[in-house]
Amino acid sequence: MSTQVTLPRYEGSLGRRLALALRTPGGAVFVLAAVLLVAIVVSNPNFADPGSLIRFAGRTAPIAIAAMGQYYVIVSGEFDLSMAAVIAAQVVLAGNFIGQDEARILPGLVVMFAVGALIGLINGLATTILKVPSFIVTLGMMLALTGLVRYVTGGAATGNPSDAFRDIGRGGIEGVPVVGILPFSLLILLVLAALAVWLMRRPFGRSIVAVGDNAEAARYAGTAVWWLKTRAFIISSLSATVAGILLVGYAGVHPSVGSGYEFAAITAVVIGGVVLGGGRGWVLSAAAGAFALELLFLLLTSLGVPSTWRSTVQGVIIIVAVALAGRSWRATRRPRRRGGVAPSTPPPPPSPPRAQRQETSDA
């Protein structure tokens, strides 16, 4: 008679699991964001006001959404450099297609999401089917969209969507206790974050991490790698579309809206502990990385550091974060030591005696 043994789903208490999670690169970003927030409050106590905090979260929501979209591409082992160009194209499309006609808001949103999905589909198929490196594909898409936007606008602001459309990005639920107003952009971020967590718990999420870790093994396991990565690019472009819709409310319609968002999203993802090359990282850590990055810039501003140093700071962050995340994730994969001694490897089999080797060679 066999005895059925039920194994616990998790090991250790909740506090222990939380402590172990915070020691990983994906968990450390939440600690970093908290430390930066405390530092800003110390340098500027007015920032501790709930209204200020909620407005900051609303302004940061677009880059956090873009970072979550970039996460899917990076964790699959690819890059998407076209996000900023997609945002600019969507902003110009909204300004010229919707205009002041509120009846065009819903059709305009449908057109924008369709364009975003088409761009992601092209990026994905060119990368997976044509075997062009994603860095080159998305760089080419960025240049093509940027040139198209400049041709349409002449490099200047054109079009102005209705206030009802702009309220999606700059409006909110008013009369909320304590905070005063709850921005729509923050609500959209929370909904998309919950959807992202759900998606990563589905077979798609587990498969995309497996593809980033070892695409060949995933292919042998029966995974359609080309379609999985293509969907990651579609999600990235749709995330850029949502970010563009929100940015219209804050910045209006201009071809420079969203400039630098592709690098900001990549920086946020690597701050969140996602390994460039794929296979490691958490989607919520990418969003937390966006908040940590914006908090860092806000702290530098409060300390009197010129904003022209932003690009330098982003470059240093990318180099340091990638190096630390790679080493930290590799350390978590090493076999555990027992009693401070690494597990021993079996010794190689002894070589045959010299006489036996001589008899073998004579034969």
TrEMBL record:
<feature type="transmembrane region" description="Helical">
    <location>
        <begin position="132"/>
        <end position="152"/>
    </location>
</feature>
<feature type="transmembrane region" description="Helical">
    <location>
        <begin position="283"/>
        <end position="305"/>
    </location>
</feature>
<keyword id="KW-0997">Cell inner membrane</keyword>
<keyword id="KW-1133">Transmembrane helix</keyword>
<feature type="region of interest" description="Disordered">
    <location>
        <begin position="331"/>
        <end position="363"/>
    </location>
</feature>
<feature type="transmembrane region" description="Helical">
    <location>
        <begin position="105"/>
        <end position="125"/>
    </location>
</feature>
<feature type="transmembrane region" description="Helical">
    <location>
        <begin position="311"/>
        <end position="329"/>
    </location>
</feature>
<feature type="transmembrane region" description="Helical">
    <location>
        <begin position="178"/>
        <end position="199"/>
    </location>
</feature>
<feature type="transmembrane region" description="Helical">
    <location>
        <begin position="81"/>
        <end position="99"/>
    </location>
</feature>
<feature type="transmembrane region" description="Helical">
    <location>
        <begin position="53"/>
        <end position="74"/>
    </location>
</feature>
<keyword id="KW-0812">Transmembrane</keyword>
<feature type="compositionally biased region" description="Pro residues">
    <location>
        <begin position="344"/>
        <end position="353"/>
    </location>
</feature>
<dbReference type="InterPro" id="IPR001851">
    <property type="entry name" value="ABC_transp_permease"/>
</dbReference>
<feature type="transmembrane region" description="Helical">
    <location>
        <begin position="259"/>
        <end position="276"/>
    </location>
</feature>
<dbReference type="GO" id="GO:0005886">
    <property type="term" value="C:plasma membrane"/>
</dbReference>
<dbReference type="GO" id="GO:0022857">
    <property type="term" value="F:transmembrane transporter activity"/>
</dbReference>
<feature type="transmembrane region" description="Helical">
    <location>
        <begin position="232"/>
        <end position="253"/>
    </location>
</feature>
<protein>
    <recommendedName>
        <fullName>Autoinducer 2 import system permease protein LsrD</fullName>
    </recommendedName>
</protein>
<keyword id="KW-1003">Cell membrane</keyword>
<keyword id="KW-0813">Transport</keyword>
<dbReference type="Pfam" id="PF02653">
    <property type="entry name" value="BPD_transp_2"/>
</dbReference>
<feature type="transmembrane region" description="Helical">
    <location>
        <begin position="20"/>
        <end position="41"/>
    </location>
</feature>
<keyword id="KW-0472">Membrane</keyword>
